[in-house]
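Student: Hello, beginner here. Can you help me understand the protein record under this note? Any guidance would be welcome.
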Amino acid sequence: QKWTAQQLINAIEICNHADINYKNSKNPRLTVEIALMQLASLTAVDMDKKKSS
């Protein structure tokens, strides 16, 4: 599956936000898990849009 340019930008923003929060987090594992769920949701939302079209 290919990602659009906007999806890549969103993914980089999620990773950047997670990186910043990781350094200051009391629970870094949770920070990483939330970031992974956000990345997974990028493709899930896009696939839902394609199915409804």
Remarks:
- Residues 28-52 form the longest helix (25 residues).
- The two ends are 18 Å apart (CA to CA).
- DSSP finds two helices and no strands in the chain.
- The mean pLDDT is 89.
